[in-house]
């Protein structure tokens, strides 16, 4: 269970202040990672100092700022792990639902770096952003209310669902394709507590069973792994090489955390919001 009260936050980027004598890191190293603490203890990363197991950290490469690095861990790991079972992606068709958001803007760019054709759903105001900035081949404006099958074009090898649009996406997925489910937001709207959890579990189990029996394309419910080599290290290298852009919607201070969450809950954030400390600045 999640311990309440707690300091929120799992993503962190900063400078090592203390390390064990036999650690692979030394004082002064620039590091980044996901502490994976939310289910383990109440001490999150919305703080000037935090502790983390060294196996969950990696060095920040030259050319990547603290703010850029801090935007990557959970979003980047999730994006990579959603795509990874379908890699290599060269020549494949990939549909990303929610391509302008934190996870989505990484997923779109990673797929493009591997040579995939990438379509993504977004609001009309983000069409230029996902195509001109992120490099998507097709932007689908979900606010128009059109049926996905009518506007998505040819069937896809992979659908990455970051918004809970899985039910309508099967029609655009190849029989040999793969559904990577990350979010169930649309399907659980209005639900909370046990009802929310039960709805997700029923959906996951039913589709996993159908997939195992080959009654539908392959179905994966993405459960994040937090070790840097599961996608963070790879994404950091792509960013250092200029192949992936980390889009930061805004940078806010520790004292603005409530406001930052309000902004996120309203929706419409492009990329990530980064929290910085006075020490970092």
UniProtKB/TrEMBL annotation:
Transmembrane segments: none annotated. Residues 1-275 form the Enoyl reductase (ER) domain. GO terms for molecular function: oxidoreductase activity; zinc ion binding. It comes from the Eukaryota. CDD domains: MDR_like_2. SMART domains: PKS_ER. This is Enoyl reductase (ER) domain-containing protein. It comes from Gonium pectorale.
